[in-house]
Amino acid sequence: MQGQSQRVIEAEHLSFAYGAVPILEDVNLQIEAGEFLGLVGPNAGGKSTLLKLMLGLLTPQQGRIRVLGRPPKQARHRLGYVPQYPSFPRDFPIDVLNVVLMGRLGVGAGLSAVLGTGFGGWRRRDREIARRTLLEVEAGDLESAPIGSLSGGQLQRVLLARALVGEPELLILDEPTANIDQRLEGEIFELLARLNTNLTIVVVSHDIGFISSYVNRVACLNRTLICHQTESIDGEMINTLYGEPVRMITHDHGTDDHEHGQSTGAGAHHARGVTPHG
Ligand SMILES: Nc1ncnc2c1ncn2[C@@H]1O[C@H](COP(=O)(O)OP(=O)(O)OP(=O)(O)O)[C@@H](O)[C@H]1O
C-alpha cells in the first residue's frame, strides 16, 4: 500500500557513463505515488540506462537516486519490471502459470516454497495470486499454455502478470508494446491505465503522441531530462515543434544538429518515423 504522497522515485543530479561515454548528465526526476509517467527519447538517449539505475542494476557515478525512500537495491523487491525483450528462450518447456510464478521468487513466501519443496512446489497461496493476476491482465485462459505458443500480445500480458504477481508498488515497463500491433498496443495501455488506479507506473515508449492520451506526464530523455505535463502536449504544440503536422514522434533536447532543429524553451525536437499528415 502506497503512502498518501509518497515519493516513489527521487533522482538528484544523476550522471552515468559507460566507461568514458557519458549517457546521463545531471538528471533530476521526482515521481510521486500514483503517477503514470511516460519516458520518451531517441534511440540511445539513455532510457533503459535510467531504468537500470532505478532497479539498482547500475550505480551512478554522480548524484543520488532513491526508490521508495531507499537505495534502489533495497527497494527492488517492491518493484515490478517488464523488460524490453523477453530474456528467456521461447522454446523453454514451461507453461504460463509457472512463468508468472517466477515473479513470486523475490517475495519471501514464494522463495521459501521453492527452497522447501523443490521447483514446482509452490504454495497454494502463490498459485492463487498468480491465477488472480492472470485474470487481472485478461489472460486467465492461458494458464496451461506453453510459453512458446503465445502470440506477441499474449506474451506481453503474461510478462505483465509476472511483474505484477509480486504485488509491486512501482511498475516499470521498457517499451512493452514494441513488437505488437497498434490495436493490441491500445489494449495493453488501457490495461495499464486501469492498473494505475492503485499502482505507480513508468513506461518507456518511442511514441509520445500515442502515450500522451494515457500518461499524466512525459519525461523526455536525451542525455539530459526535461518533463512535460501531458496537457501541455497537444497536437498544436507538437506541430509547432516539428514545423509540420506529425503523428509518431520522439523528440530530443539540447543538441544543435537537429533535422528539424528549432529553438524552443524546452529545447529542440525531432522526429523518428515521422508521418506528416496531408
Ligand atoms: N553495457 C553497456 N556498455 C556500454 N555501452 C552501453 C551499454 N548499455 C548501453 N550502452 C550504450 O548506452 C547508450 C544508451 O543506451 P540505452 O539502452 O540506455 O538507450 P535507450 O534510450 O534505451 O535506447 P533505445 O531506445 O534504442 O532502447 C547507447 O549508446 C548504448 O549503446
Automatic annotation (TrEMBL):
<feature type="domain" description="ABC transporter">
    <location>
        <begin position="9"/>
        <end position="248"/>
    </location>
</feature>
<dbReference type="InterPro" id="IPR050153">
    <property type="entry name" value="Metal_Ion_Import_ABC"/>
</dbReference>
<dbReference type="GO" id="GO:0016887">
    <property type="term" value="F:ATP hydrolysis activity"/>
</dbReference>
<keyword id="KW-0472">Membrane</keyword>
<protein>
    <submittedName>
        <fullName>ABC transporter</fullName>
    </submittedName>
</protein>
<feature type="transmembrane region" description="Helical">
    <location>
        <begin position="96"/>
        <end position="122"/>
    </location>
</feature>
<keyword id="KW-0547">Nucleotide-binding</keyword>
<dbReference type="Pfam" id="PF00005">
    <property type="entry name" value="ABC_tran"/>
</dbReference>
<keyword id="KW-0067">ATP-binding</keyword>
<keyword id="KW-1133">Transmembrane helix</keyword>
<dbReference type="InterPro" id="IPR027417">
    <property type="entry name" value="P-loop_NTPase"/>
</dbReference>
<feature type="region of interest" description="Disordered">
    <location>
        <begin position="253"/>
        <end position="278"/>
    </location>
</feature>
<dbReference type="InterPro" id="IPR003439">
    <property type="entry name" value="ABC_transporter-like_ATP-bd"/>
</dbReference>
<dbReference type="GO" id="GO:0005524">
    <property type="term" value="F:ATP binding"/>
</dbReference>
<dbReference type="InterPro" id="IPR003593">
    <property type="entry name" value="AAA+_ATPase"/>
</dbReference>
<keyword id="KW-0813">Transport</keyword>
<keyword id="KW-0812">Transmembrane</keyword>
<dbReference type="InterPro" id="IPR017871">
    <property type="entry name" value="ABC_transporter-like_CS"/>
</dbReference>
<comment type="similarity">
    <text>Belongs to the ABC transporter superfamily.</text>
</comment>
